[in-house]
Amino acid sequence: MKMKKWLATLGTVSFLIGNVLAGCSNGDDSASGDATNSDQPVEITLAGWGSSPEESELLKQVLQDFETSHPNIKVKHEVIADQYMDVIKTRLIGGEGPDVFYLDAFEAPGLIETGVVEPLDSYVTEGFDIEDFEKPLIEAFQIDGKTYGFPKGYSTLALFYNKKMLADANVEVPKTWDELLDVSKKLTQGNQVFGFGQNPELARLQFIAESKGGDIVKDGNANFASEDVVAGLQPYVDQHLVDKTAAQPNEVGAGWTGEMFGQGKAAMVIEGNWAIPYLQSTFPDIEFGTAEVPTIDGKQGTMAFTVGYVMNSASEKKEAAWELISYLTGKEGMKTWTSKGFELPSRKSVAVELGYDKDELRASLVNGARYATVWSDGKNLPVIFTNFNNQFVSAYLGDRPLDEALKEAQDQANKEIEAQ
Questions:
Q1: End-to-end distance of the chain based on CA atoms, in angstroms?
Q2: Which terminus of the chain has a smaller tally of CB atoms within 10 A, N or C?
Q3: pTM higher than 0.85, yes or no?
Q4: In the chain, where are the structural domains located?
Q5: Which GO terms of the molecular function aspect are on file (predicted)?
């Protein structure tokens, strides 16, 4: 998805990071174990995907700070540039996996089920303060009462709006979805400017699909052809086909909704934190604001994309690996990692300390974390996601009814799930 492509160049997703120092420093860590008591430094490996030069420098700084405060642990940072999950799975199966590695919440349930990810509950001490994490984010790495990872950062989605376009049309920023539909009509200018730029894929639509009480996943199977899900999605499709006040990026020659918005071809889009530095650097003349995603039937909703640090269950250096995880996701390490705003801190206290909860552009994104639907919904979500997208586009383009397209997609997804 386009968001993922931007994160790959800017750094993350995801969608998709301490007061925790050495065991003798301030009491915020777990027991130090052999790693910090050894006379010889222990080397552990941290694997992740590539990021922008700016984020690479930030991570380098965090790792240097960690090694300074943990002189008996050295970190070897490995960047897996392509096919990250395939490479990680192959290495883990082959017994050559890193001690600590990135794990996207989207992939977490499936990988955790294989047993290659170490449960972290026994390593956690009271000073680590699990309650400080935004609840939906940490729950994405919890299965059957066990915690397998801690989120290093995240982004939710917020409504981005062009201040000049709204002012010229004499309309207010919409707070409800009905208002968004109405405002979009007043902002649309033929086929040149659309009131709303849409991103018709499940990773962006799950909270909308479930807004009427339905579930896209039920008992591990695809459930997006249910009446409630179809009812949730129909207004989104109708805005494109009936009202003609919304378009997707490729219909106006743009690569993603952030670019569509920056080019002035959409007055409003729903995008993530990564769009802020992109717009500021690529389209510096545009005046834009952000707001929380408009409510649907009085209920708040948005998506969240997050990545966690997890431990290889086969690691022979688990105490040192935990020291690294607890620092990267502790208050001090996370503060440094998120200090430039490329990712938002998954710890509430760090968001407050950095002022993101009151930031003119990022406060809406931070506020959404507490009620967000995290892009992670069981081990079969990758199959469900693919089949949904394959067929939803036909309804979005008007080739057939939405309920018919989703029924075909659901049946195919569940056949693939049954065959696994």
A1: 25
A2: C
A3: yes
A4: 2-155+305-374, 157-302+377-419
A5: maltose binding
